[in-house]
Every structure is written in structure tokens, then in C-alpha cells.
Amino acid sequence: MITFVVKGGKARTAPDFLLKDLPGSGGRMDLLCRCLTSSLLLSHGIRTDVEVVLCLAGPPSPPRTITVRGDAVRHLSPDERSTAILLQKALAAYRAGETVESTPGITISDIPFAEVVARNAKRLVVLDEGGADIRDVEHVPADACFVLGDHLGFTDEEQALLADAPLTVTVSPKVLHASQCIALVLNECDRRGII
Amino acid sequence: MITFVVKGGKARTAPDFLLKDLPGSGGRMDLLCRCLTSSLLLSHGIRTDVEVVLCLAGPPSPPRTITVRGDAVRHLSPDERSTAILLQKALAAYRAGETVESTPGITISDIPFAEVVARNAKRLVVLDEGGADIRDVEHVPADACFVLGDHLGFTDEEQALLADAPLTVTVSPKVLHASQCIALVLNECDRRGII
Predict the structure, then answer these.
(1) What is the ipTM of this complex?
(2) pLDDT of B76-93, one tens digit each?
(3) Distance (Å, whole) CA B131 – CA B167
(4) Is it true that the peptide bond before B104 is cis, omega within 30 degrees of 0?
């Protein structure tokens, strides 16, 4: 199982954001929606061996962590709006201190980003411009947990958490959107037969 | 200048589609929006050496061809909804037999897909599962015109038009969304220093 962890530094942590303004009222919820679909959707199918962990850190009540498993998720469509509705349902289903399944394959909790990183410490692969070219990396683990920042990147504190990751890779000579990076990572995994 | 031509077989050819239902009322307009942003947007910038040609072929009055130039476009944001608004403005600005600029860098005409293909015949690169792996292709032209189908692929008639293309490539061992394919093509171009 490949995992993508995506940080949403300003992503709204209540379900009250407007579907017609995902970038503004949702704190770039559009970006997280694209990361989710980019991770899990093939042209006519779902990647059952991928899961996505979205770490929302915006107002009003961070952290909220939404996990979506490709082998269990239902009703996931490629468009941003319907994906945002699934995230709204997750935020609405939140109960303090619990891990709640809001719709099939989607759970929400208040596990902070630092703990997500700590739990996956041994299989972390950080996406960073300064990393090794993924095409040159000899061994990409079949259970890799790729960690990506949003348009704001990682804070100093987060970077310290990620400093000990076993592997740091880059996928492009240009700085791309997180969802584009995910497509490139998955292509490398597909080509290597990892997933 | 790299060009991406994307066919929207069912894409609505009037500006009356609903922004809250791009997949249904827009005839998968969400897919075209993602192709557009995937082609032109970097994390914090625009690809000025890329243009996108969207060939809309759905009801009520096909064809409509919308061209977006990276070196001239303004107000392009990564989210689907704001991109769809730009396409709506283009459809609303259409005048029969003319090429009309609706907003900076975006033009609309009724040039049919067949003519778009014919005009770019010498630099066509068709994206197709049966093509050569793009990583193995010795020479990717710096003025390549990549042609992609939507979720429906190409009709028999369109495939006949594309049969004489100088190059047919594939980017992935799995069948992906068009916007994901575009990210992979651009990565190969970036790595080769073509753009």
C-alpha cells in the first residue's frame, strides 16, 4: 500500500466552507481535492493499493486528518466539487478524540501531522526540490509513504520532523503543484511495478 | 511552443452549463478544466511556452474550439470552477465564422477538430496506449502538438485523421486521465529541456 500524506496549511477545519469558493473559503481545499483524485483515480477505475492522508491545519479548529483508502472509498468522482462534498461530510462527522468513518473508506480524526509523520517514520519519502531524482533512486519501497507540502510548503517545525526521513526525492526540474507531483510519483511506481 | 489538443466529445458548446455540475451539465467540462490548468500552471507561475486547444463537440452547436496561450492568458487559477468561468466567457463571446478573443489569451472559433489536426499535421504527437514509451523516444520535437482524447477516447473517424501522425506515444502502463497524461508529457519535456 502506497500512502500520500498532503499538508493543507490553511485548509478549513470545519464543514462550513463554500463549494463555490474552495480556494478562498476552503483555504485551498481545491488543492487537496485534486491531490485526492490524482492519487486514487485511474481513467476508469480506482487505485485500490493507494491511500491518501490529508492533514488540514487551517482555522477554526486544527488539526483534522482525513484518510481515504482506495480499496474502500465509494462515490469518488474526478471533479473537485463532488470531492469537496466528501471532505465536508468528513469534517461534519468529526467527533473529538475518535476516528470516525464519514462515508465508505473515508475517516476523520484529530491526529496531528507530527503524529502522522511519526507513525510512518520508517517508510517516509519526502517530496522536496532538493531531493534525489526519483528516476535515479534504486529502491522505491512498495509501502512508501510520500509526504508533500501544499502551495506554502512545510513550516520550519515540519521540516525538522521530516529531516530524518529515510528518503527525499524530487520528480521534476520545475516546481509543480502537489497533484502534478503525485501523478509523477505514481507513474514511477507504475513503471516499476510497485503498485 | 508545445501545444496540447484535447477533445471534449460531449463538452457543452453553449455557456449555459451549471458551474455546480460541470461533469453533468457541462458534458465533462471538469475534465477540460483540469487539462487546461495541468498544461499551463506551475506551482507559482504559468508555462509561457505552452498553448492548449480544447475541441468541444457536445450539444447544442458543435464544434467550438477554445485556444488558451500560456504567454498571454490572465486570471487563470488552479481550481476547476474559476477555469470553467473562463470557458463560459469564451463560449458566450463566440461569433460565427470568426476567431474571437474573450479574455486575454483565450480565443474561441468554430474550427473543427479535423482542421485543428490538419493544420498541425507535421508536428502531431498522438497520446495512445499503443504508442512508443515517451521515455524511449529519441527526439521529442520542441514544437510538438500532443493530441489527447477525453474519457471516451477518439471516434473511428478521428482515429483515421490521426493515423498518419509522425509520432504516437504512451506515457504510462496504466490508462490515466488526460490531465494526468499531460503532467507526464510535460515532465518529459522539462527533463529534456525542450520547454
Answers:
(1) 0.97
(2) 999 999 999 999 999 999
(3) 8
(4) no
Rounded to the nearest angstrom, the minimum Cα separation between A129 and chain B is 12
AA identity, residue A55: C
Name every chain B residue with its beta carbon within 8 A of the beta carbon of A22.
79, 81
Q: What is the pTM of this model?
A: 0.98
Distances (CA, A) of A98 to A4, A65, A93: 22, 11, 10
C-alpha grid cell, residue A34: 485534486
- Kindly tell me the sign of the dihedral angle through the C-alpha atoms of A182, A183, A188, A193: positive
Domains of chain A: which residue ranges? 1-190
Fold category of A1-190 in CATH: Alpha/beta knot (3.40.1280)
For A79, which of B22, B82, B184 is closest by C-beta distance?
A: B22
Decide: helix, strand or coil at residue A93. helix
Please report, for residues A59, A148, A174, A185, the alpha-carbon distance to residue A171 in angstroms, rounded to integers and kept in the order given: 31, 12, 9, 7
Residues 6+ apart with CB under 8 A from B39: B4, B47, B50, B52, B70, B182, B186
The residues, ordered by sequence, that sit 6+ positions from B134 with a Cβ below 8 Å of its Cβ are B140, B169, B170, B171, B184, B185, B188
In the 8-state DSSP scheme, what is residue B124? E
Cell output for B4: 496540447
